[in-house]
Write a structure and sequence with these properties.
The chain is α/β, with parallel strands linked by helices and 189 residues long. The protein is 42% helix and 19% strand. It contains seven helices and seven strands. The strands form two sheets. A five-stranded parallel sheet has the order 2-1-3-4-5, sandwiched between helices. The termini are close together.
């Protein structure tokens, strides 16, 4: 059974992206995958700083993050768009996870993992511009980023009682979740 780690680049408890991520996680489970939800804001990661890392070692939150990443075949990341780009929380998380600890290979938490990207916004583009940046970062560090992605615009009108209304946004999200289950199953069989 493919194991997918799900997290949102927002620390806000009721963010639109977190709500969309919950829909995606449910779809993955319905398609035969296993999901784990990870709250990035609860990791307590300091701003990445090599001096801090050298003086104090890897923060406990970064260790927990990497252990969760090692234990899963892939990721679904809900990516809020801040000023047409990636959120500081998500970028900092990627930076800490990319640092090899003693006994780890470089980028071990990322290489060969499969990732599906989603975003939600009250705007018309649904956070699409930020996904370009996240896709580039992850692709450059060895992640297999699926071409299928889901950017849901006008999320405040699309999300009803914890689910997406029937229509193209729900269809695209379903295609991405089905694809991540298929690809991770094939790659990690």
């Amino acid at each position: 059974m493919p194991k997918i780690l799900c997290f949102a680049g927002s620390a806000r408890k009721q963010s639109w992206n977190r709500q969309l991520l919950e829909v995606a996680a449910r779809m993955i489970r319905e398609q035969g995958g296993e999901t784990t939800m990870l709250e990035l804001g609860e990791l307590g990661l300091p701003l990445f700083d090599e001096d801090l890392e050298r003086e104090q070692g890897t923060p406990d939150g970064a260790k927990r993050l990497k252990q969760a990443m090692f234990a899963h075949d892939g990721f679904v990341i809900a990516c809020p768009e801040y000023n047409s780009s990636i959120t500081p929380l998500l970028k900092n998380t990627i930076d800490w996870a990319s640092r090899p600890a003693q006994g780890e290979t470089p980028l071990q938490a990322f290489k060969g993992k499969v990732c599906g990207l989603i975003s939600a916004s009250q705007g018309a583009l649904g956070g699409l511009r930020g996904l370009v940046h996240v896709r580039s970062i992850l692709g450059n560090i060895g992640v297999v980023v699926l071409p299928e992605q889901s950017a849901v615009g006008a999320i405040h009108d699309q999300l009803v009682n914890g689910d997406l209304k029937d229509g193209p946004p729900k269809k695209f999200l379903g295609e991405m979740t089905q694809r991540i289950v298929e690809v991770t199953r094939r790659l990690h069989a």
